[in-house]
Amino acid sequence: EGVCADCVDYDKGLRRGAKRARRQGSGDLPDAIAAGMVSTPLGDIALGATPAGLVRVVWDNHADAPRLDAVRRSRRGSRSAREHVAAGKEAVADYFAGRPLRDCAIDYVLLPDPDTLEAVRAIPRAQQASYDKLPTPGSALLRGEALGNNPLALLVPCHRVTRGNELPDEYVGGPDRRRSLIELEQG
């Protein structure tokens, strides 16, 4: 009723992806990663990186967060992976301080639907774009799944992706965090 079939598919994909992120995580994490944690006004964010770049920047409700916390406490990971984690922590702190988000190296090899994730990174702070305008080949359902299961919160600002001119209710960090992020950016 007033919503096209693609938008219905996009919402279905968002729900499916977010459910997977909260229950199963965003896919395999390699054994040789470094991890860190940063506290934000909206809750803790866990980070994980390989020597090539970040593979996780996830909210505390994400299924990968406990494993990343265990890796963080064990102090594993190569020097370059730890440097990527440190850069990610600085980027998150900058974001919440209202400064431009630093460009961090991302290891796209381990990420689902890197085309969609990369397209979302181009959406400027305090702006929004509809999923159907993203320059990526994926279907509405696949785009929704990739963004619902976004393993790189804030760095891939999926909270800025709309359904036409509407903001979907689903967000991997929860709808309250999504609204808070949008308010922070527009404030």
Q: Give the beta-strand count.
A: 5
Overall geometric form: globular
| SSE order, one letter for each helix or strand | HEEEHHHEHEH
User: Between the first and last Cα atoms, what is the distance in angstroms?
Assistant: 34 Å
List low-pLDDT spans: none
Main sheet properties: 3 strands, antiparallel
Q: What's the total helix number?
A: 6
Strand content: 5-15%
Overall average pLDDT: 93
- Strand sequence of the main sheet, in spatial order? 1-2-3
Radius of gyration: 16 Å
Helix content: 40-55%
The chain-level structural class is alpha+beta
Oligomerization status of the protein chains: single chain
Provide a compact summary of the structure.
The chain is α+β, with helices and mostly antiparallel strands and 187 residues long. 41% of the residues lie in helices and 14% in strands.
